[in-house]
Amino acid sequence: MKKMKEPIKTIKERLFAEEVDPAYVAQLMADERSGVQKLITKYQNQQRKQQQMQEKYAEMSVFEQELYQKGLRFVAGLDEVGRGPLAGPVVAAAVVLPKNCGIIGLNDSKQLSAKKREELFVEIQNKAVAIGIGIADHEEIDRVNIYQASKNAMKRALADLSITPEHLLVDAMTLDTDIPQTSLIKGDARSISIAAASIMAKVFRDNLMKDYHGVFPHYGFDQNAGYGTKTHLEGLAAHGICPIHRKTFAPVKQYVK
């Protein structure tokens, strides 16, 4: 009697479960059904992507691991989001991750989809030792310039932490603090701690700008987060500035009366 082949639906359920026996995968590779072969290809692609993400995580943990090996426990990553927009604040975050936090997928927030950022935002909140948020609003940006305002926001994020870190990993900036620090160019793509800070700041700021959209609906803040998109510029031309616009930024300043 010919042996019944396992239904493709069952194979799919088993193949994408948490743990898959390599012997089972090898067995499936001998199954000539096109539906099974498509599942195998999908599975292999998923495994390859997972492996790449694991390698990226290890690569981005180097700075933290070096500090842990020196006996340090609390390393904070700092980053800011919102230097370029024409409206709204600049937001900074400081994040202290536990050793071997295992948050796979951390990367520069700009390289991630909104959905992935939201997922990682929740995971970081659940796993971080401490998180601090700092804000410099549009008025402060106009008063002291965007670079200084970004520094101020970072200092506030650092002060907002519930613990005092032993070392700082800072994205492309040096802060006025007695805490030892390392400034990393493109740090949000090189350090898991800075990447985590980048994600926390980005999601926090995006949500803030969505709230502002409810108050000032003419500029598309819920979609552009204050950046100078076509919708935003058309809103400026038609309605002028709103109270959270940065008056020292072009082209906003041409609408200041």
From TrEMBL:
What's a single GO MF annotation on this record? Answer: manganese ion binding
| EC assignment | 3.1.26.4
Amino acids binding a divalent metal cation: D79, E80, D171
Classification lineage: Bacteria, Bacillati, Bacillota, Bacilli, Lactobacillales
Q: Where in the cell is it found?
A: Cytoplasm
Please give the organism.
Enterococcus gallinarum
Q: Which CDD domains match?
A: RNase_HII_bacteria_HII_like (cd07182)
Record-given protein name: Ribonuclease HII
Q: How is the cofactor bound?
A: Manganese or magnesium. Binds 1 divalent metal ion per monomer in the absence of substrate. May bind a second metal ion after substrate binding.
Q: What does this protein do?
A: Endonuclease that specifically degrades the RNA of RNA-DNA hybrids.
The chain positions of domain RNase H type-2 read 73-257
User: Gene3D superfamilies given for it?
Assistant: Ribonuclease H-like superfamily/Ribonuclease H
Q: What class of enzyme is it?
A: hydrolase
